[in-house]
Structure formats: C-alpha cells, structure tokens
Specification:
The protein is an alpha+beta fold. Helices cover 32% and strands 34% of the residues.
C-alpha cells in the first residue's frame, strides 16, 4: 500500500523533499538529541548533499533544523543570518562516507552547556530521514515513532528495567534494538513506541543503575 505522504510529500519550504525538508528534519533531530541550544556545528556533506546541496538549499535547511525550525517555516532561506543573531557558529565541508546513502551528512554539534554530540544521518526521500550513527555507534531509527535513546552499560538488567517500565505505563513498543561498539562497552538502546513515553517513566529510567543517559524524542506531527 502506498502512503499518501509518499505521493504528496511533506508540507515544506524549498524545492526538494530530500534535500530541503529531509535536511530540516535531520537538523531538528540533532537539536533534540543534543538536548541543548546549539552554539557550534561542524557539518560534513556526502554524495548528492555535497554535489547539489547548495543549489537545493540543503545547507540552509540543516542550519534551520538546528535552530528548531519546522519544514514549512518561511525563515528557512534566512537561517544563516538567524544563526548569526542567535550565536550559532557553523562550518560546512565535504566527506566521502563509504556505503552511506547519497543524501547524507555527518555532524558534530556543541551545546551551550558544553555537551557534544556526533550524528550521521541521511534523507531517504519524501522528507523522511534515517539516523545511522550516534556518538560513534551504528544505529538505525527514523523519527517516525516516539523514540527512547538510552545509553547504558553492557548488562542484562537495564533491558529488563526498560521493558518493565514501559509495560507498567502501558506503552506499546513498535521496534527495539540494541547497538554497541565493543563487548563490555556502552550500549545504545533504541526503543520506538506508538505512544509518547510519560515523563515520569523517563525520570525513573534515568535513576536506574547502569543507565547513563535517556533521551525522549517525540514524533513530529505531520
């Protein structure tokens, strides 16, 4: 079955759903995962993002997303000037990422508190995105669901803590995956749910031994 969203595309400003709307969503995702006001961003463009991105406004769209703009924000073309006003310094370069989607960007973002976050993501068409790498760990999630991103120590008890908490809150899990760079190192747990996760569940998980960080991404309304 074809989704009407695949036919019509997102409500957006710009000439291309992949190069513009998708790029805005990537920037917004990075802002959310950072959990802070971005003050510095280094963005490396790959494939067609690097080759034709400027003509499609990809660079301005990425910065617009980092500033928190939506895909239909009329200020997207002015994102560079707005970033300067808000104290966000940024730079662009090109990079060759092996086996990456042609519309990909690798970025390192620093927040006002000093927190840093590295993310590699791609725009896969129709305004949809895929987060492919987060803080050095290969992951896979889209932002099409409400999502918990949990960094924890490599042990079995944390998985039980998460599933028990979600069950008690009657939150339906759509997808769940665990990713780690090495055995015994930190684990990135990705939990995509049909419903938003209540704030008290996020706070409960943050207090569990072995859990280092919990980020709750709320799905954007179409």
């Amino acid at each position: 079955m074809i989704d009407v969203f695949d036919i019509m595309g997102p409500i957006m400003v710009g000439p291309s759903s992949s190069h513009t709307a998708g790029a805005v969503r990537i920037g917004r995702m990075a802002r959310t995962l950072l959990g802070d006001e971005p003050v510095k961003a280094v963005l490396l463009l790959h494939g067609s993002f690097a080759e034709t991105g400027v003509g499609h406004g990809t660079d301005k769209a990425l910065i617009a997303g980092l500033l928190g703009m939506a895909t239909d924000d009329l200020d997207i073309p002015n994102s560079f000037e707005i970033a300067e006003e808000r104290g966000l310094k940024f730079s662009f370069d090109e990079v060759d990422l092996r086996e990456a989607h042609p519309n990909s960007v690798k970025m390192e973002v620093t927040g006002a508190s000093g927190r840093r976050m590295k993310m590699q993501a791609s725009s896969i068409g129709g305004g949809r995105i895929s987060v492919d790498k987060l803080d050095g760990v290969w992951v896979s999630f889209s932002g099409d669901y409400h999502t918990l991103i949990i960094q924890n120590m490599d042990n079995q008890s944390n998985l039980a803590d998460v599933t028990t908490a979600l069950s008690l809150a009657r939150v339906n899990v759509a997808n769940m995956s665990m990713h780690r760079s090495v055995k015994g190192g930190n684990v990135m747990m990705i939990v995509e749910t049909d419903d938003p996760i209540p704030g008290y569940i996020v706070e409960l998980l943050e207090k569990q031994p072995g859990i280092l960080q919990v980020i709750h991404y709320r799905k954007e309304e179409e």
